[in-house]
Amino acid sequence: MSTRPFVSPFRSSPPPGGCPVFTPGFWSPHMNRLTAKPSPALVIFSLLGWLSLTQAHGQSSYVDVTDFGAVGNGIVDDTSSIQAAINSITEGTVFFPPGDYKVSNGIGISRNNIHLKGDATATLVMTTQPANGGVLVCLRTNNGQGPYPVNLSVENVNVDLDAGLSGAGIIWKASYSQMQNVNVRIRGDNQKGVVIYGDGDTGTGSYYNQFSRVYIQGSVNSTNGYTAVGFDLVYSSSTAASRCPNANTFTNCRTGGLSTAVKLRGNDNTFVGCTHESTTQYVYDVLHESVSSGSNRNLVINPYIEQYNTAVIFYCRANASGNTLISPYYTSIAQVFTDLSTLQNNLWIDPDQ
After folding, report:
1. Residue 4: how many other CB atoms lie within 10 Å
2. Is-contact 258 230, C-beta < 8 A?
3. Are 52 and 46 in contact (CB under 8 A)?
4. For residue 50, what pLDDT is reported?
5. Residue-wise DSSP of 262-316
6. What angle do CA 91, 92, 95 make, to 5 degrees?
7. Nearest-angstrom CA–CA distance, 247 and 242
8. Counting beta carbons within 10 angstroms of the beta carbon of residue 328, is it exposed (0 to 12), middle (13 to 18) or buried (19 or more)?
9. Is pLDDT of 324 > 60?
């Protein structure tokens, strides 16, 4: 007869000396010490406790979009299959195997704790005009009545917006969330890579997001006259400073082939070690469109900048305050600011100059 101790899913071993603790799955006097088998009553109690914990805290799930009918061959429309996979879980991971997933409308995320994770080559390809403005879009929770979601992540899922379409690759309205190893390809005029919105109705963001190794490639050059923006941080309709995109961090991100690399509205956002190539108008355009909203105290540290001679590296518009550019590496600049006399309360700190 076995004398191996009972091993609970909640604890790796019983307390020293078999201390009587009447907690589901823990060593207790209701266990037979000779056989070390739990009594039927304890088994039932433990299972009921586990089920109640699962229901109270939710069970994280893992689904694969191909299990819902997505093909990923660039020909079949995978929109409904991908959306069904996302909608099938209350929280957890939606996985994209390698492939080009053709979509005809924006893929929406309207729940907290949803994580989109792909193979490095998994790409959402938009070839028709998206009705909701983007290829991947954050939507309000609670059937459109609640705040925007929190604790989202997008990793190794790429986005491709075809030429001739308007809109954005990703429309981000979320907080306390992450985006990493994401490539956004925008191919036409008047397109945007990643648009990060403030929230004018509930005041929930976008705050405290982490963007790491997000690469936005456009098709702007010095002859075609295209207008395209990489990262576009946008005020809500409200004038309250709390409704701006605030306190987001961008690390080792990259833009190329754009008229404006970063259009910055909001407060206390930080860009660290980002690379910007082939920009025709503005690398960092710091706008201050509302006196009560800001753009204030934004920080750009050690960017690497290669751009056409017509571009301005760090343009702080009227009333923008406390914005700082530190130690940029740049080639063939047109000018530091449009007019250094407009620097006002903003700083350019360059130890090499």
Report:
1. 8
2. yes
3. no
4. 42
5. EEE-SBS-EEES-EEEEEEEEEEEE----TTT--BS-EEES-EEE--TT-EEEEE
6. 135
7. 11
8. buried
9. yes
Q: Is the pLDDT higher at 353 or at 97?
A: 97
CA distances from 48 to 21, 30, 38, 71, 91 (A): 17, 17, 15, 40, 22
Residue by residue, DSSP assigns 39-99 as -HHHHHHHHHHHHHHHHHH---EEEEGGGGT---EEEEE-HHHHHHHHHT-SSEEEEE-SS
Long-range contacts of 334-343 (CB under 8 A, 24+ apart): 334/309, 334/310, 336/312, 337/312, 338/312, 342/316, 342/317, 342/318, 343/316
Given the DSSP bridges, would you call strands 31-32 and 37-38 parallel, antiparallel or unpaired? Answer: antiparallel
- Pick the more confident residue, 299 or 3: 299
**Helix (H/G/I), strand (E/B), else coil: 142:** helix
Place of tokens 């701006």: 244
Bridge partner list, 117: 95, 155
Q: Please state the φ and ψ torsions of residue 46, each to the nearest 5 degrees.
A: -65, -45
In this structure, the number of other CB atoms found within 10 A of the CB of residue 350 comes to: 13
Which residue spans of the chain are classified as CATH 2.160.20.10? 61-349
Q: What is d(CA 123, CA 188) in angstroms, rounded to the nearest whole number? A: 18
Can you tell me the distance from the alpha carbon of 296 to that of 288, in angstroms, rounded to the nearest whole number? 8
In DSSP terms, 210 is beta-bridged to 178, 249
What CATH number does the domain located at 61-349 have? 2.160.20.10
Q: For the segment 102-127, what is each residue's pLDDT rounded down to a tens digit? A: 999 999 999 999 999 999 899 999 99
DSSP 121: T
pLDDT band at 78 (very low <50, low <70, confident <90, very high): very high
pLDDT interval class at 239 (50, 70, 90):
low
Two tokens at 144? Answer: 């459109």
pLDDT digits (tens, 9 = 90+) for 15-47: 344 443 333 333 333 334 334 455 555 445 445
DSSP string, 191-220: EEEEEEE--TTT---SBS-EEEEEEEE---
